[in-house]
Design a protein that fits this description.
The chain has helices spanning about 10-25, 40-55, 60-75, 90-100, 105-120, 130-140, 145-160, 180-185, 200-215, 220-235, 265-275, 280-295, 310-325, 330-350, and strands spanning about 165, 170, 175, 190-195, 245, 250-255, 355-360, 365-370. By secondary structure, it is of the alpha+beta class. It has a 4-stranded antiparallel β-sheet with strand order 3-4-5-6, with no helix packed on it. A two-stranded antiparallel sheet has the order 1-2. Helix 11 (about 265-275) runs parallel beside helix 13. The two termini are about 15 Å apart. The structure holds zinc ion (ZN). Zinc ion (ZN) binds next to loops.
């Protein structure tokens, strides 16, 4: 287990106690009150139940099945689009994890994938959060088959077609059409992102996992080489933020280090690429980036949330992954420090289920508040101390 060697016995007992409290509350949540999604809905809570079962925190099979049924019913009934965190790709991913039957039970959803992805590949967003890279990552959970390999090749080919070539390699441009109203206001001509949720790091992670499981998809290797080369060309070691969050026509925007945006997500993507293409200098850069993010910023107070997406739990999880793969002591220290921070912040909450989170207002500003959000990606049901990285 990732966290086994990183936590003290006292921390493990505390994690277990917190987990049991939150799981007790989870039993009271009605599936009918949830949407289908992995990020905030029933599919995410079904995954929490599965992880709780795996970690011997009680039997949650009944609750997990109820959440998953809810998600599958919604996907069957409504014209929901693909997408990892908010579309049906995430539901399919959880279904395949649950049933462990080679993907038979999610066959109907995968038929829909074939139709949707084949028809709309070049019109879809490319990112991990809601686009092709996330669809592909979800499909990797299924047992390999020639059909599935063809679908993955189709996704890789579309990602290549959607990319922009430059002297430095290949990158992806997010056009204003794929942004929310607030996003368009903030970036009227769109942007280039480097991070895990919406940028190159997410695509690099998907391509790396694809090559690991399907080494015969050689187009993925070429695209991985070119996209990693571009990402490395954006490196600026003199900055506190080594890789910019986004690049627009007029500026390079920098910020905090988290799963969705920032250096720690970039570091994990570089590490994954280094592993599958056997590039030791990429691994060295991955470790150096992760170390410098912690050395420069420590427990970064610009990150008030505890959530997986852009909060302390996600950062702790990614450092734990870095430490497990590389055995780097500084990454292990960063993982333990961020984890301790999560526990201390949790303890400050007078009411156990309230978590400090920051919502975005219409002006694009973060408004910190205590919330009772119980979603997987943004709320309290994150279980990261006991499980592996979510993506
Ligand atoms: Zn986020």
């Amino acid at each position: 287990m990732v966290w086994g060697s990183l936590l003290t016995d006292a921390q493990r007992r505390e994690v277990r106690a917190v987990s049991m409290t939150l799981l007790g509350e989870l039993r009271q949540v009605s599936p009918d009150t949830r949407s289908h999604t992995l990020s905030e809905g029933a599919a995410g809570l079904a995954l929490v139940c599965e992880v709780a079962d795996q970690n011997n925190l009680g039997s949650f099979e009944t609750e997990g099945d109820a959440f998953l049924s809810r998600a599958v019913e919604d996907v069957a009934e409504y014209p929901i689009l693909p997408g990892l965190w908010q579309g049906y790709s995430g539901v399919c991913w959880v279904l395949d994890r649950f049933n462990n039957d080679g993907g038979e039970s999610s066959g109907a959803i995968v038929d829909r994938y074939h139709k949707d992805i084949t028809a709309q590949c070049e019109r879809r967003a490319y990112d991990l959060y809601g686009g092709l890279a996330g669809d592909g990552l979800a499909l990797l959970e299924r047992t390999p088959s020639p059909d599935l390999e063809r679908l993955l090749l189709r996704i890789v080919t579309a990602l290549q077609a959607l990319s922009t070539e430059s002297e430095a390699g290949r990158h992806w441009v997010t056009s204003p059409d794929h942004l929310s109203i607030a996003g368009r206001k903030h970036s009227p001509t769109g942007f280039i992102a480097t991070g895990m949720a919406h940028g190159s790091a997410g695509i690099i992670s998907f391509l790396s996992q694809t090559i690991k499981l399907y080494p015969s998809i050689t187009a993925a290797k070429e695209l991985l080489q070119a996209s990693t080369a571009w990402l490395l060309s954006q490196r600026n070691p003199k900055n506190k933020t080594r890789y910019p969050h986004t690049i627009t026509k007029t500026e390079r925007r920098e910020g905090r280090s988290a799963w969705c945006h920032g250096d720690i997500g970039v570091a994990v993507a570089l590490l994954m690429a280094s592993q599958v293409l056997g590039n030791s200098s990429w691994e060295a850069e991955a470790v150096d980036t992760a170390r410098s993010a912690f050395r420069n910023n420590g427990i970064d107070r610009r990150l008030p949330d505890l959530c997986l997406c852009h909060g302390a739990s996600g950062v702790a999880q990614l450092y734990a992954f870095m430490a497990e793969v590389t055995r780097d002591k500084e990454c292990a220290l960063a993982a333990a420090s961020w984890h301790e921070h999560v526990l201390r912040e949790y303890a400050k909450s007078a009411q156990g289920l309230h978590f400090y989170t920051a919502s975005i207002n219409d002006e694009g500003e973060e408004v910190p508040q205590w919330t009772q959000d119980r979603s997987l990606l943004f709320g309290s049901e994150r279980w990261t101390p006991l499980s592996g990285p979510i993506s």
